[in-house]
Write a structure and sequence with these properties.
The chain is an all-alpha fold. The chain folds into two domains: 1-102, Rna Polymerase Sigma Factor, Chain: A (Orthogonal Bundle), CATH 1.10.1740; 106-177, Arc Repressor Mutant, subunit A (Orthogonal Bundle), CATH 1.10.10.10. Helices cover 72% and strands 0% of the residues. The protein has helices at residues 6-14, 18-39, 43-60, 73-94, 109-117, 120-128, 131-142, 147-154, 158-176. Helix 1 crosses helix 2, helix 4 (73-94) crosses helix 8 (147-154) and helix 8 (147-154) packs across helix 9. Pfam families: Sigma70_r2, Sigma70_r4_2. Keywords: Sigma factor, Transcription, Transcription regulation.
């Protein structure tokens, strides 16, 4: 289905089109797996979240009305995946196991693209943020997660998320003024 955008694929999936589902999976699963692995190093959890995400896409494609993050089908897909990852971390916490959410030390390609897309000034300010502040901004602003979901995702208390979000906003304001 070359030339068909992801939004049309989701609408076709809503009508039960298996070929559209396979095409959406082919297009989006590689980057989705990379984004999930940046937040969780447990391959089993990533595989489960991927499976749950695409099952949810198949079941909920009819309710697609755009993403709260950016209005696109890809943003919608990421919102589903991020919430499924938070759910997986909650399940692990109930089982008294702590998820490994240690960040990858090298900058990810999506961070580089994001910084470039936001312009030199904003991108530079974003790059200059401490990693823990950048993670909170990414989860809350780009991924559209709540404070509670961000806390679970990053494995820190909600108060810490709020403090880091406030520090990140202040640092961004100072860098851009």
């Amino acid at each position: 289905m070359p030339g068909v955008d992801e939004e049309r694929l989701v609408r076709a999936i809503a009508g039960g089109d298996r070929a559209a589902f396979e095409e959406l999976y082919r297009r989006t699963s590689p980057w989705l797996a990379v984004r999930l692995r940046r937040r969780c190093s447990d391959e089993q959890v990533v595989a489960e979240v991927m499976q749950e995400t695409y099952l949810a896409v198949w079941q909920a494609a009819g309710s697609f009305a755009g993403s709260a993050v950016d209005g696109t089908a890809v943003g919608w897909l990421w919102t589903i995946a991020a919430r499924r990852l938070v759910d997986a971390f909650r399940r692990r916490a109930r089982q008294d196991r702590t998820p490994d959410t240690s960040p990858v030390p090298a900058p990810a390609a999506e961070d580089e693209v994001l910084a470039g897309a936001l312009g030199d000034e904003v991108g530079g300010a974003l790059r200059d943020l401490a990693p823990e502040l950048r993670q909170v901004l990414q989860a809350m602003v780009l991924d559209g997660l709540t404070v509670r979901e961000t806390a679970v995702l990053l494995g820190v208390p909600e108060g810490t998320v709020k403090t880091r979000a406030r520090r990140a906003r202040t640092a961004m304001r100072e860098a851009l003024s």
